[in-house]
Structures are given as C-alpha cells and as structure tokens.
Design goal:
heterodimer; A: about 150 residues; 2 domains; about 75% helix; B: about 525 residues; mainly alpha; 18 helices; 2 strands
Chain lengths: ~150, ~525
C-alpha cells in the first residue's frame, strides 16, 4: 500500500460527497441515475480501501513518493503557473500577445538557447496563424483590452 | 453486395480528391513527426490535432486523423532504431533488433524494413476493416434501447482492460468518468445537473476539450516535472534502405503472421499496438530459420514487430465505427473526431449518405499506407533529426496547441479552462495510477448508456426485465463478462511476450513512451 493512495481515496470520497449534495437538490426523478453512479464510485473506492488494508498487512506500507522520483517542483510549478498566467493574459491581452510572452518566458525559464527561443516562438505563432486564422478562419481571442 | 462494391468504388474516387490527398500527406507527415518524438504518443497527437479537422468535410477530417494515427505508430520506430528510445510504446520491441542493426551500421536497412513492414501490416489490416465492419454494422442495426444499454456496459467493461496496475483503480477511473458525464442537461427530465452556473456546460463537458486535456496537456505537465535531458544524437546512416528480393522473401511470412496477430489484437477491446509489437516479435522469432540472429540485429524481428503494430490500426477501428465502442485510447480520440463532425459512431455510419463518407474514409485509410511508405522511405533522415527536439521546446509548444485547439471548437474561453482542469486531472491520474483512457471511455459511453437505460425503463413502465428480453441482450451480457475477464488473459499474454522478447514492459496506460534506454 502507498501512503499517497490515502489522498486519492479521500479525494474520491470528497467528489462523491460534493455530487451527492448537488444530487439531493435535484427533482426526485432526476436523482436516480446520478445517485447510482455515486454509489458505484463510493463502493469501488471502499473496495480499494479494503484492498489497501490487505496490501498493508501483507506487503507493508510505502510512502508512494517513489512515483515522484526526479520530480522537480522548482521547474514543474513555475511552468504550471506560467500556463495559468498565460490564460489570464490571453483573456485581457488576446491570444497572440499572450502566446508570444508565454513562449518566450517558458523557453527562457527552461534555459533554451536564445536563437532557439526566437525560432520556436516564430514557428509556433506562424503555425497557429496559418492553421487557425487563415485555414480554419477561427477568430482567436482578441482580449478585453482590444475589444 | 453490389451496393457495397459501388460504395467501395465511390470511396476510392472521393478519397482521391486533391483535398483528401493533401490531408493524407499532411496527416502522415505530422503523425510520423509526433511518433518519432519520444515523449509524444499517437493518442496525444490525434487529440492535439482534433480541432484542426472540425471545419473540414467529415471524410477529410477522419482521413487526416487516421493518417496521424498510422504515421505516429510507424514514426515510433525511427527513434527506436536510431537512438534506442521508442517514440511510442508500440515500437518498444522494434528497438531490440533495430538498434542492434544501427550499431552494426545497418540503420538504413532497419528503417527500410520497418517502413515496408508497417506498410504491409497497415495495408492488410484494411482487408478486415472492409469485410468485418459492414457485417458487424448490419448486426448492430437490429439493436434497440436495451441492447444499446448493454453495448455501453460492454464498452465500459473494456475499462478494466485498459486499466493500469490496479483493476479496481481502473474501474474507479471509469466511475469517475461516468459521474463527470452526468454534468449537463438531464436527457429525460430536462433538468440542469451539476453545471456550476456555467451555461456552456448545458450539453455536458466537451469531450474534445477533455481529450486534449487528459492526453495532451497532461503530457506537457509530465515532461515539465523531470529534468530536461539532452537526447542522444541520431546515428547518421549511409546504407541502402530498400530491401533486396531475398530480404523481401525472408520477411514476407513474418509480415503475414504479424498481420493476423495485429489485426486480432486490434479488434479485441483493451489490447493495443504495444502488446501486438511484442507478440509479433516473438512469433517472428519462433518461426524464424535464423533464430540465432535475434538479439543481434535480425530484420525479421523488426518486421515482426512493425507489421504487427501497424496491423492493429485497421482492426481497432472496427468496434469503434460499427458499435461506437472505442477499444483503446487512440480510437477513443478518433471517436471524438466523429462526434465533433456531428456523426454518431455506430451502425448509422453504414447507412445512406453517411455510408459514402465511411467508405471514403476506408479508401483513404488504404491510401494512407502508401503515403506512409513513401514519406517514410524518403524522409527518414529528416525525421531522425526531429527526434532530437528538446522537451524544453515541446512543453510550451504543446501547451499553446492545447489552448488554441480547445478554444477553436466553440470559440469559448470556458472550454480552455475545462481543458486545463482535465490536464491537471490527467497528470494527477497518471501519477497516482488512475487511468485517463478509462475516464475518456466513460465520458463518451456514459450518455449512451444512460439514454439506453432510461428509455428502456420508460418503454417498459419501469420494469427492468426489458433489459434481458432479447437474445442479443444475452450475447452482450456474455461479452460483458468476457470484457471483465479479458484483462487477466491480456496481462498474462503481454508479460509472457515481453519476458520472451527480453524487453522492457510497456506502460500499461498506453499513453507514455517506453524508454528502453536514454
């Protein structure tokens, strides 16, 4: 058994609880199917808890952190943060400005040589422009500032 | 019969339209690039480029996605042979013999063998697509609501097959997907369910956004968590890629056997190209007259593995197109491609005007194999250089394509946020051994099952015996039992095959590339 699985189980139970609360607010005829799925999910999770308990008895408990071997929090979280900030900037400043900033910032952070940053950013912007704006005629977000 | 032949003929005429030819060429090239990049998988590539096809004609869009699929399966062999790092799990067995040939200065020959075997494997798999798909579709046309309910249950039992280390965790992933599929309007009562005040969730979670998040964005996050590695320089080669007559004669029986193996594996739910490549490789060794060459650079080994993994492609499309049941992650994504076009996967694809589209796709699928052969043979040297592209560039590039792709579907910013949420969910699922493919299957099949169940009960006045009222229902129930038991058999088959081949076990989710060596 992995200790990290306790977190997984807690998360699934929390999801079940959240959906249960919302289901109880539905008219009774609409409750049956979601309720069935919630019970199924909770039952399977409970079955897994039992499996975990048996596994802990037989094979002992491991931290589960071995799955995160080589995990670089100082690289992962800034990249995830940049993706989130990218979406926020896109909302206000539009797709192309946000993409330019995101690509440059992310590549700089990941220590890509400068000429490769210029090339990659240019290629991606050109690719998106040709494929989505010219070919598919998709109006990409303009941003609140430019509307 | 005559009608089918006419449809086949029309299909080829339509598939030869310039726009379709362009889609084949572009799709195959993109697929090979994605396949040869360790870190990107076929499912991820198809998911990422799905939004590109939504303004295209349905057959053109499907041809493009099919080309990406076939190209990616073949592309994985390039990095497997040249840098001993399979681009996709489907090429894990190819790395064993292919890299040995590279060390002996026969990289060109190994790539040529991979290309030609992939071509024949893929081409032969089209035979089963042409002959079995219409038969199965005819059977499915007789299905009513109770049968559709059991069909979706059968599809969901496949979840157990695609499940990762723990079957229970796979089933939990499936149930989580089912719960997420209830978001949106209740199909019978017209009540808003779990929409969190977002009117854009009226029709439920956009499956394509979920696919992009679960397969592509999560992969970018997986790449972002590890130290960026410098990939080995791809070996330059100068030997001839074309095979001699004697070599062609030598690999022909192997290709034939691998075709049968790959096709059957493709049709079976829950199994995929990663299993087929090892089975194809082992069978090649068993029947080879030069067993001693295995492990030291045997072209039969490369041919066995590559013909088998490409033979999976045609077979795997059969249950998805005829029954609306995707057997594994790539076909689940391809099914998303059909849904995006407003088509309902299942027997309806073989009726009326839609049948023309389906047969155009079939014909396109045949022609894709020729493009794969041509582009593969001519472009191997270039693709080999692309396989060195750093993860540091892939991370932001894939993220941007995920964002723009999910936005383009409905031009809705909420879809982008949903994609990101599913990206993080997919990342966590992969870290904690939950299964992203199971979530996707449940998201797709959940609404079908719910409608089938509730319509059946409405028809029978709430009497559940309607669900057991026809012989087809019982056949489907038996298939459900088989679906649950099949993973045990599959796991055993895969373990045996890998052990005999002396390779590394592919990642069972089928999403991650296997690195036999860095």
């Amino acid at each position: 058994m992995k200790k990290t699985d306790i977190g997984v189980v807690a998360f699934i139970y929390a999801v079940c609880l959240l959906f249960l609360i919302m289901t109880l607010q539905l008219p009774s005829a609409a409750q049956t199917y979601p309720m069935f799925i919630i019970i199924l999910l909770a039952a399977l999770t409970t079955l897994y808890v039992l499996q975990m308990a048996v596994g802990a008895k037989r094979r002992g408990v491991t931290s589960g952190l071995e799955d995160f071997e080589g995990f670089l929090p100082r690289q992962f979280f800034p990249v995830l943060g940049m993706v989130i900030v990218y979406l926020v900037i896109m909302y206000f400043a539009g797709f192309y400005i946000a993409t330019l900033l995101f690509m440059a910032a992310c590549l700089l952070f990941l220590k890509v040589p400068k000429w490769q940053i210029l090339l990659s950013t240019g290629v991606i912007l050109a690719l998106v422009y040709c494929a989505f704006t010219l070919f598919l005629k998709v109006k990409l977000p303009m941003g609140l500032l430019f509307k | 019969m005559l009608e089918t032949l006419a449809l086949m003929g029309h299909g080829f005429v339509n598939a030869l339209f310039p726009v379709n030819i362009l889609a084949m060429a572009a799709g195959t090239t993109i697929g090979i690039v994605i396949g040869c990049l360790p870190g990107l998988s076929a499912a991820m590539g198809v998911a990422l480029l799905l939004p590109m096809t939504f303004t295209m004609d349905a057959s053109t869009g499907l041809i493009m996605l099919g080309a990406i699929y076939c190209g990616a399966i073949f592309g994985g062999s390039i990095s497997a042979i040249l840098i001993h790092t399979p681009g996709t799990p489907a090429s894990a067995a190819t790395a064993i013999e292919g890299y040995q040939m590279t060390l002996q200065g026969r990289a060109g020959k190994a790539l040529g063998t991979a290309c030609i075997s992939s071509f024949f494997g893929g081409l032969l798999s089209c035979i089963s697509l042409y002959f079995f798909a219409p038969l199965l579709a005819q059977l499915a046309m007789k299905f009513g609501s109770p049968e559709y309910f059991w069909l979706s249950i059968f599809g969901l039992t496949i979840i157990a097959g695609v499940s990762s280390k723990s079957m229970v965790k796979g089933l939990i992933s499936g149930a989580l997907g089912l719960l997420l599929s209830t978001i949106g309007m209740d199909p019978m009562e017209g009540v808003k369910r779990f929409m969190f005040g977002q009117s854009s969730l009226y029709e439920g979670i956009n499956t394509t956004c979920a696919l992009i998040g679960l397969f592509s964005m999560s992969q970018a996050l997986i790449l972002a968590e590890q130290k960026i590695k410098q990939r080995a320089r791809a070996t330059k080669f100068s030997d001839k890629m074309m095979l001699t007559k004697a070599e062609m004669k030598q690999i022909a029986p192997t290709v034939g056997r691998s075709w049968i193996i790959g096709n059957l594996i493709g049709i079976l739910p829950g199994a995929g190209a990663s299993i087929a490549c090892f089975l194809g490789y082992n069978t090649a060794r068993q029947f080879s007259k030069e067993k001693e060459k295995f492990g030291h650079g045997s072209i039969e080994g490369v041919a066995g593995s590559e013909a088998a993994n490409n033979a999976v492609t045609g077979g795997s499309l059969i249950p998805m197109l005829t029954l609306g049941i995707p057997g594994e992650s790539v076909t689940a994504v391809l099914m998303g491609g059909l849904i995006i076009q407003g088509l309902t996967p299942g027997p309806d694809l073989f009726v009326g005007e839609t049948a023309q589209m389906t047969y155009t796709f079939f014909a396109g699928f045949v022609l894709i194999q020729f493009f794969m052969l041509g582009i593969g043979l001519l472009g191997c040297r270039g693709f080999a250089q692309i396989s060195r592209l750093s993860d540091a560039i892939l991370i932001p590039a894939v993220s941007v394509l995920c964002v723009v792709g999910s936005y383009a579907i409905h031009k809705n910013f909420v879809d982008v946020v949903i994609m990101l949420i599913f990206g993080v969910l997919g990342y966590l699922c992969r870290k904690f051994d939950l299964n992203t493919a199971a979530i996707v299957l449940a998201l797709i099949l959940g609404p079908i099952g719910e409608k089938g169940l509730r319509r059946s009960l409405a028809l029978s006045g709430g009497n559940p015996s309607i669900l057991f009222s026809t012989p087809v229902c019982w056949v489907l129930i038996a298939l459900c039992v088989f679906g649950i038991l099949s993973p045990i058999l599959m796991n055993r088959m895969e373990k045996n095959a890998v052990e005999k081949a002396g390779g590394d076990m592919p990642d069972e989710s089928g999403d991650d590339p296997v690195r036999t060596s860095d």
